[in-house]
Amino acid sequence: MVRKMGVYAVLAFCLYGLFFYWYLFYFADTKLPFEYEGSKADPATFLNGRELMLSEEYSKIRNLLFFLSTPFEWLFYFLLLLFGFSRAFKRWAESSSKYKFLQMAIYLIWLSFFAFLATFPLNYISYTLSKTYHISNQSFPSWMKDELIDFWLNYGTWLIIVPVLYWLMKKSNKRWWLYGWLLSIPFTLFMMFLQPVVIDPLYNDFYQLKNKELETKILSLAEKADIPAQHVFEVNMADKTNSLNAYVTGIGSNARIVLWDTTLNRLNDNQILFIMAHEMCHYVEKHIYFGIGGYLLLSLLGLYLTYRLMNWATKRWGKELKITDVADIRSLPLFFMILSMLMFAASPFTNFASRYQETRADKYAIEMTKNPEAAITSFQELSRSGLSQINPPFLVKIFRYTHPSMLDRISSLEEYEIKLKNK
Ligand SMILES: [Zn+2]
Questions:
Q1: What is the pLDDT of residues 281-297, one digit of tens each?
Q2: How many whole angstroms from 154 Cα to the centroid of ligand 1?
Q3: Cα 143 to Cα 346: distance, rounded to the nearest angstrom
Q4: What is the pLDDT of residues 16-40, one digit of tens each?
Q5: Residue 149 CB neighbour total at 10 angstroms
């Protein structure tokens, strides 16, 4: 039975992969709708032939990797349970120490290590892909360093969460999901508060804007939006990537707007001011707080469903998955698997909400800067530097796009430009 289940799971994953290969490479039509041909959203008007070809090619492979990687994780956790690895990790942990917490730490290190090994090939392919297409220019040692920081950061976080979680499961097998959720609120807020000052600097260097002339312009814009000046930062990314980005991060006194230095290097001042105004909208309209609120609501539902599904799976498949009791640490891969499935299922909704905020931010930015030419060219440059698809396939859009497609973004700016001219 166990071997049969394993074979079926692998087959299901292969069929799923083939489906997405067919969908992304043969079925999906990413051609521009004819009414946009020749408009400023038409990539043929701002990319050269080589860039056009590369952006299609790169996006297709990238999308395929995206759709493969998450279900690959599920397959990994499933096989880990099925073939008794989780049980073995627990045995190794128990034979190395008699202290409960140390046993947990050892179990977790084995699980994390195997997960790292299993996901390494896909991560490495993704890294070499962005190098081949000159999106990334990060050296292998620097990339590996980031991977290792990821590893230890995740390990550290789970080392705090997992012992508490399993203690709650033991104490209350009917309500652990609720208590766990209540505890997750202060923890999430604390991590969000630390993010910009403790976590992000582990990966990159952050500093106040270096270009003082530009800083003055940005500060006068910030004043218009009522944002205190100490909230604008520059981050050194040029050694790692050629793509452009800016974002808002952190909460409370640590909230800040961050600009990648690549953005500062590649765009002119008016373009940067448009991007800044967009980020300022996220800050002013407190999109991060709405995001946290939505996340907490979803995680309550998610933890409840995880509780139900874990009980169901343990009852139905406990023998095959080698889990006798949900509150036994051996069930952790099941917990991760279910959580990851639920997050994937929720992503169309969270992405939809995010796209709504992004649309608002674009509108706010153009109203504030009133320079559609700069806005449109900045988006064109963003597309070129990231080789991003202007008009992504439907499934890619709903599962992957936290921002509206460039087709939508540029064409609404163009509408604004026409309105402005007719005034
Ligand atoms: Zn945004």
A1: 998 999 999 999 999 99
A2: 26
A3: 30
A4: 999 999 999 999 888 888 888 888 8
A5: 13
Q: What is the pTM of this model?
A: 0.92
Give the CA-trace dihedral at 386, 389, 394, 398, to 10 degrees: 20
Under 8 Å CB-to-CB from 236, ≥6 apart: which residues? 204, 205, 206, 207, 261
CA distances (Å), 154 to each of 113, 159, 238, 415, in order?
A: 11, 8, 26, 45
Question: Is the dihedral angle over the CA atoms 109, 112, 118, 120 positive or is it negative?
Answer: negative
Q: Is 123 a residue whose pLDDT tops 80?
A: yes
Cα of 359 vs centre of ligand 1, distance in Å, is: 8
Q: HSE-up of 126 (CA within 13 Å, CB side)?
A: 16
* Sign of CA pseudo-dihedral 130, 134, 135, 141: positive
Over residues 390-406, the pLDDT tens digits come to 889 999 999 999 999 99
In the numeric block, which tokens belong to residue 57?
């090619």
d(CA 70, CA 96): 32
Gap from CA of 283 to ligand 1 centroid (Å) = 10
Cβ(155)–Cβ(109) below 8 Å: yes
Determine which one of 73, 234, 279, 358 is catalytic: 279
C-alpha of residue 90 to centroid of ligand 1, in Å: 44
Which structure tokens are listed for 339? 């959580």
Distance 361 CA to ligand 1 centre (A): 6
Give 44-50's long-range contacts (Cβ < 8 A, gap of 24+). 46/377, 46/380, 46/383, 46/384, 47/383, 47/384
279 catalytic? Reply is yes
Asked if residue 122 lies in contact with residue 76, where contact means CB atoms within 8 angstroms, the answer is no
Residue 389 half-sphere exposure toward CB, CA atoms < 13 A: 22
Model pLDDT, residue 189: 94
Q: How far is the CA of 247 from the centre of ligand 1 (A)?
A: 7
Report CA 105 to chain centroid distance, whole Å.
27
List own/partner pairs for 384-388 with CB under 8 A and 24 or more apart: 384/46, 384/47, 384/51, 385/135, 385/242, 385/243, 385/244, 385/262, 385/266, 386/135, 386/243, 386/244, 387/51, 387/54, 387/55, 387/58, 387/59, 387/133, 387/135, 388/55, 388/59
Contact assessment for residue 279 and residue 247, using Cβ atoms and an 8 Å cutoff: yes
Other Cβ atoms closer than 10 A to 280: 26
**Amino acid code (one letter) for 395:** L
